[in-house]
Amino acid sequence: MTTTKSKALADEYMRLGGRRLAKIDDNITKVREWENDPPEAEKFWQERIAVLDDKARRDVEFYLPDINAP
Predict the structure, then answer these.
(1) Distance (Å, whole) CA 49 – CA 41
(2) Looking at 6-62, which runs of residues are DSSP E strands?
(3) How far apart, in whole angstroms, are the C-alpha atoms of residue 45 and residue 10?
């Protein structure tokens, strides 16, 4: 099974302890952050995800845990 670059970035962010959650509603993805990320996850987000163009960043955000999921 092949993993996309977006999924790999999201998985690595979560592995580092990232706490951002996705809110997906009507195919619109937003990210919520109620708790601060551990330093390693925050650094990864800023250096590898925040710098992406809007579409690529949304693709990564799609793979974050969904706040609406049980």
Answers:
(1) 11
(2) 21-25, 28-32
(3) 9
For residue range 28-66, what is the model confidence (pLDDT) as tens digits?
677 877 789 999 999 999 999 999 999 999 999 999 998
- Can you give the pLDDT at residue 60? 95
Q: What is the residue whose two structure tokens read 């601060």?
A: 36
CB 45 within 8 A of CB 9: no
Whole-prediction pTM: 0.85
Take residue 5 and report the two structure tokens written for it: 């670059």
**Amino acid of residue 47:** E
Burial 6-34 (b: 16+ CB within 10 A, else e): beebbeebeebebbbbbeeeeeebebeee
